[in-house]
Amino acid sequence: MSREVEETNRRLLRARDAMDRAYDQPLDTAALARIACVSEAHFIRTFRATFGETPHRYLQRRRVERSMFLLRESERSITDICLDVGFTSLGTFSRTFREIVGQSPSAYRLGTAPVGGAVPTCFAMAWLRPSSFGEAKERSDG
After folding, report:
1. Distance in Å from the first CA to the final CA of the chain
2. Is residue 19 within 8 Å of residue 27, measured between CB atoms?
3. Strands of the chain, DSSP E
4. Beta-carbon neighbour count of residue 108 at 10 Å?
5. Residue 124: what are its φ and ψ, rounded to 5°?
6. Rounded CA gap, 116 and 27, in Å?
7. Full pLDDT tens readout for the chain, 142 residues
């Protein structure tokens, strides 16, 4: 791997780490591109080529992953969870959640129980991570 590719990957990882840290905050592509020290168009293109999904879809999936945890582990309302993970619209949250997880947030909450201590955390996290169903659909839609 060339030095240039390594540096590009490091910059993209910095931007992705910023998304992971501030997933619940409004994030725009321009700010993330500045973190990666590239133009917006180049950032979107290289992020997708490197991580297999657009920055927007990565952020949505990250928010949905966090909401899945909150739906399992708390009794808070779906609206509160929606707003806490960074969505500004309950409709967008529900639609995105269904695309990524395959069921509505309320159905997910009813069908899952809190994860107990009998299963190692690494296995539980891998098992409960959203499938790539919605991501494959997004890639085929263009």
Report:
1. 29
2. yes
3. none
4. 19
5. -60, -45
6. 33
7. 789 889 989 999 999 999 999 999 988 999 999 999 999 999 999 999 999 999 999 999 999 999 999 999 999 999 999 999 999 999 999 999 999 999 999 999 998 766 555 556 566 656 566 655 444 445 445 4
Which of these CATH numbers, 3.90.640.20, 2.70.98.70, 1.10.10.60, 3.30.43.10, describes 54-142?
Answer: 1.10.10.60
User: What does the alpha-carbon distance between residue 38 and residue 55 come to, in Å, rounded to a whole number?
Assistant: 14
What's the CA angle centered on 102, arms 97 and 108, to 5 degrees? 70
Sign of the Cα pseudo-torsion (41, 85, 95, 51, in order):
positive
pTM: 0.76
- The residue extents of the domains of the chain are 1-51, 54-142
